[in-house]
Amino acid sequence: MSADPVYFELTFMVMPLEPIRDVLVDELSALPFDTFLETEDGVKAYVDQSLFNANGLNAVDHFPYTSSIAESIEWTISEIQQENWNAKWESDFKPIVVADRVSVIAPFHDPIKADYELVIEPKMSFGTGHHQTTYQMLDFLSRLESLENKRILDMGCGTSILAILAALKGANCDAIDIDSWCIENSLENAERNMVSINAWQDNSCQRAEGPYDIILANINRNILLDQVSDYVTHMNASSELWVSGFYIE
After folding, report:
1. Interatomic CA distance for residues 174 and 200, integer angstroms
2. Binned average pLDDT, 10 residues per bin, the chain of 249 residues
3. pTM (2 d.p.)
4. Which domains does the chain have, with CATH numbers?
5. Which listed site, 48, 83, 111, 218, has its alpha carbon 20 to 30 Å from 247?
6. Counting runs of H as helices and runs of E as strands, what totals does the chain give?
7. Measured between alpha carbons, how far is 7 from 81 in angstroms, rounded to an integer?
């Protein structure tokens, strides 16, 4: 049996908090970082130690756009074992409510009454609703009157929080992520919320069977620009593509 992977935890303290935090996450996403947790004064970013080397450290020290607009950036690095992940995120995970329509809690939280009550255990996956882009996607999805029998693809699904909300609203959902851990976590979260989704590991949507009514791409700008042509092949004239990961200069 292979040993559990060791992750680096990079803790960033930035000023001003916004928009630097979102810009920083965008630039970190171009590296192998796959999980982010917002903090009161910045963000924590996680990366598999085997995928991160001196070049990565140098890149973090010299992010061009973040460095040019931030008043200050301080960061530290430490190791964290996968087996200790739950203790880490439990200490940071706070319940959220999205526009009084969606509540997102962890299994150890007390329920929060809402039209759609999601129970998400992120483990090593991105997607608890705390990040602004995920929050906005949840907000937009919750505003739709019905998704009954609609086909939805969640690209870079992380915890599959978006696919799960869509499934609760009646959609048939596929979810894709490059990280096998996210797929395992997605299926666990779907079962926890008593919905069914199709989830598989891949770095693109080429194996997906479109067309889809809505494609959700809550991922960073570089991946969006690289894969948008693939998304189009899985759409028809009435399909919608929802994207995040862009910031206004």
Report:
1. 8
2. 70 88 81 78 86 83 78 89 63 83 92 95 65 87 94 94 97 93 92 98 92 92 85 96 73
3. 0.74
4. 6-88 (3.30.70.260), 93-243 (3.40.50.150)
5. 48
6. 8, 12
7. 6
